[in-house]
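hey m, so remember when u said the tokens were messed up on ur end? i reran from scratch. heres the input so u can diff it against urs
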Amino acid sequence: MNYNRLLPFAALLVVYLVGAFGVDIMDIDAAQYASIGREMADNNEFLEVQFREKDYYLDKPPLLFWVTALILKIFGATNFAYRLVPILSTLLGIYAIYRFAKLYYSEQTAYIAALVMGSCQAFFLMNHDVRCDTLLTNCVTVAIWQLAEYLKHRKWSHFIGAFVFVGLGMLAKGPISVIVVGAGFFVDFALKRQWKNIFDPRWLIGILIVGIVLVPYCIGLQRQYGSHGLYFFFWEQSFGRITGENEWNNSPGLFFQSHNFLWSFLPWVLAFIPGLVDFIREIIRNKFRLNASQEAISLGGFVLPFMALSTAQYQLPHYTFVVFPLGAVITARYLSKLIEHPSIGAFRWVKIGLIVTTCVMGLAILILSTWAFPLENIFLIIVFGLLAVLIVQLYNKKRPAFSQLVFAPLLTAIAANLVMNGHFYPSLLRYQTGSVVGQEVAKIHKAELPNFVIYDLAPEGEYNIFHSALDYYTSRITPVIRTESALKTETSKQPKLVYTDEQGYTSIKASGKAFEVVNQYQNFHVTGLTLPFLNPAMRATETRPRYLIRVKS
């Protein structure tokens, strides 16, 4: 084995780990999922998902909660513990896409596909802002690889593996797992005219395997929610967002996912687009027929789910990340073709597109690390500078074509995200006061932790103050006090350490109770970045004060 070929993956892993250790868990979703997993680890109730001791959280299946609970029992509630299994799943997913691509393409194409998958912006994001999509995406990728292996070699171990991972994908985020796998292979079978494969009775055995994997969760759903829980999981959660049965609606627009793809598939997006066009054009030239050695799994598995998800009435950018590994294959087959024929005109234009992408990403990092949050870490500055020099040299036309079209944009992604994970996100998370206060209370005010409460005057069910990060980092369910009378009652018994906002602070001052401000913070919802917040001169207009107050009895 040529171990030098593993160095880029080692570099990707380093960047993932920098984010895993150094970036606090973000509100709302990731912190909520981490908190649910921590609560599950405490109550040892794995069949019924609870959130803050209530049968509240039906929205997502439990795979992420299960693995989080198991890991937290070993390592405790840390940044790294929550992200450990998702990162390991990503390594497996990268390997799976390599093995899948190798079934149909050259070693070079498979290698590029693995690099593209691991280095696109979505994967850096998914491995520190961990939601259900990380496990979903990697389970689906393994399922596709295993099913392709089965169809080629007819080994039952691959068949069982494929459907076990389809089931795990459903346990990660629902039926979208089946949709992506089914769409990919349906298009492939249709273009190869393999109608027997579509109606193969062995798929019934696969459905049985998936059903066995889902049994524990279905038992929990039935116990908690009855038949509605099962209906929600198998239909309303996923398909209901397209049919309109699901009440969630943020009116995203038909091109919402297309616009988000432009940044989430960086730095490869300007290689993917002509690659997709080339793939479709090739199929049209072949009169919509493929031979047995070709594949359209990546095309069907990317395009059809992407289009379906783009029509949903409620969308978030990460909803389409599940098909990005297949997008990596589409990109790799095209880049490999250009590398083998560097004299064709498309090589020059794709290279120009990648250079433009590199310049844009470099400029963005430069702005974020000099203007928004000035970078003072000398080590990061030196590493980023050296990588920038190397990237420029790799784009030199005297370099091998592989270096120009693959290694240069790959290093761009690594350099950019090393700064993001090592500097930008840690600086940004100083304004997420839930995690800041949670860690401060757990370490500095540990003796007062049993008397630590949230004072939030918002009505029940509304969230002026998010509490998931607090719960996670304090390893407890932080009590929430919602009325002035309840606060007076609680503080008359014993002193309380209170986390609150400006409204709560004003209420405490007016109550006549003796108190002291232990610390004051500026809070910002970090997953909703705005230009005024990034501007240091205007940041104060975007943040809101939070307080840690000791109210005396």
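this time it looks ok to me. The first helix runs from residue 7 to 22. if urs says something different then somethings off w ur setup not the seq
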